[in-house]
Design goal:
alpha+beta, Immunoglobulin-like, 2 domains, four-stranded antiparallel beta sheet, 12 strands, 33% strand, elongated
């Protein structure tokens, strides 16, 4: 009888310890602050017990693949799950382990960041527009173009225009952005615009390409 009572007491004590452990784990997570950092495209959560958290929901959407940076900091990158949760302006609940929640306000929807732009082509030593420019000798060999050069910060450029065309090249070693849909919005480029239409447009990705475009324009259009 004594052994049975001792066994019962031991099991009861062990059950109490396990129950206490589960209860402590359930209340271990605390959320103190939430910052929506749009420039870094992430949500920064501060609090405690994040290393013990097992589930996380935002606006009712399960967040997967989130790893705590530490017990006191959690970062949630903008992704499809976050975008589906924060789809409009308003307040949304961030819930950890089904019980701990914090209200998150966003002034506008979170948009999933697009894929990074493709790397620029390796580039060469000749003007990427030269062949297309050469295909329009009747247009370019007017010898009546008004030409010029300019410097804007680290960007350099040259241009010429005649009665019905505009030809130009520009290059910035710190910004080789090129917009094929709107070449006029580009930073490093060569173009030919006839009327209101860009009939030739290519990215310029290094100094050698720009130098060759510069020489082409000044040798065949401006002089």
């Amino acid at each position: 009888m004594t052994n049975n009572l001792h066994g019962f007491a031991s099991r009861t004590l062990l059950g109490c310890i396990l129950t206490l452990g589960i209860a402590q784990a359930a209340i271990a997570v605390e959320i103190h602050s939430v910052v929506v950092d749009r420039s870094a495209q992430k949500i920064v959560v501060s609090g405690s017990g994040f290393d013990a958290a097992t589930t996380l929901k935002l606006g009712g959407v399960d967040l997967t693949g989130i790893t705590a940076l530490s017990a006191t900091q959690l970062e949630i990158p903008f992704n499809a799950e976050v975008a589906s949760a924060l789809f409009t302006r308003g307040s949304f609940k961030l819930v950890a382990d089904g019980t701990v929640n914090f209200s998150v306000y966003v002034s506008e929807p979170v948009v999933v960041p697009g894929p990074p732009p493709p790397p620029p082509p390796p580039g060469g030593t000749t003007c990427p527009c030269a062949d297309d420019w050469n295909a329009k000798p009747g247009l370019l060999y007017e010898y009546s173009a008004y030409c010029g050069t300019y410097t804007d910060g680290t960007q350099v450029g040259t241009y010429g225009y005649g009665s019905n065309y505009f030809i130009a090249a520009a290059f910035d070693p710190n910004n080789i952005y090129f917009d094929p849909a709107n070449p006029g919005n580009s930073i490093s480029y060569c173009v030919l615009q006839e009327g209101s239409t860009y009939t030739v447009s290519e990215p310029v990705v290094n100094q050698a390409e720009y130098d060759d475009c510069f020489s082409w324009i000044w040798q065949k259009v401006c002089f």
